[in-house]
Amino acid sequence: MARVLTPLPLRRVAAEIALLTAVGVFMALLGPFGSGDNPMGERLVYWLSLILGGGVFGITIDETLGRRLPGFWRRLAVDSLLMTPAVTGLVQLVAHLMFGAGTPLPFLPGLAFQVLVVCIAVMALRQLAWREAPVVIVEVPAGEPDTAAAFRQRLSARRRAAALLAVQAEDHYLRVHTDAGEELITLRFADALAELAATPGFRTHRSWWVAAQALETVRWRRGRGEARLSSGLLVPVSRGQAAALKQAGWR
Q: Within 10 A of 148 (CB to CB), how many other CB atoms are there?
């Protein structure tokens, strides 16, 4: 079975930063834990430093450990508890750099509890924001074999029963698009085409294959085209691959 890769795409990174920034601005406006006594500019720098910096700890823990845990609350508890010591240290560092003093040692447990509360809120918001849609099960009519089943075994467990929409070649990997999301696997495009030879579909481009049942519309322009799939994904159609689509009625 191919090894499944789970990189964090640039768009996801940008969205993570935007989410944490919004939380940091909200905390600066709210001014909790006595920070409201400081000018707005200082509050913005203080809370953005803490939320963005703490978010790095939380995301790292969640991506390496938390996502392996079953259940929303168990994952949230482990993430929040593990990141609290590091974020507490970050609070001390930022307070020292900005105000010249941190929390005295006897009051550190109280500070850690405040940090834990904020960590729980931020990580819960993040989990809700990135909660994955439920898997849609593909029902194959009796007597018709599921020809893509063997290929889908290369995917992670939650996508093996999902509808296969398209396969896209990316360097030495394949990006597999399903109605339960997408993921990268290590497999040659030519080998994928061979495995999917019995599955109704079209090679639309030198680096794209799409399932016939996923096609919604095809727009043509000067011999080339653009196919829209049921997921909203737009797929290029090259001149060399246009004939098969047109013969199938996509004119």
A: 21
pTM exceeds 0.90, yes or no:
no
Asked if 154 and 187 count as a contact pair (C-beta separation under 8 A), the reply is yes
Q: Which helix (H) or strand (E) holds 117?
A: helix 108-129
Measured between alpha carbons, how far is 125 from 135 in angstroms, rounded to an integer?
22
How many Cβ atoms sit within 10 Å of the Cβ of residue 6? 9
CATH of residue 154: 2.40.50.1020
As to burial, measured by CB atoms within 10 angstroms (0-12 exposed, 13-18 middle, 19+ buried), residue 11 is exposed
Rounded Cα gap, residues 98 and 209, in angstroms? 55
How many CB atoms sit inside 10 A of residue 202's CB?
23
- Do 206 and 107 reside in the same domain of the chain? no
Domain that holds residue 223: 149-247
How big is the CA angle at 127 (ends 31 and 139), to the nearest 5 degrees?
155
pLDDT tens for each residue of 212-248: 999 999 999 888 899 999 989 999 999 999 999 989 9
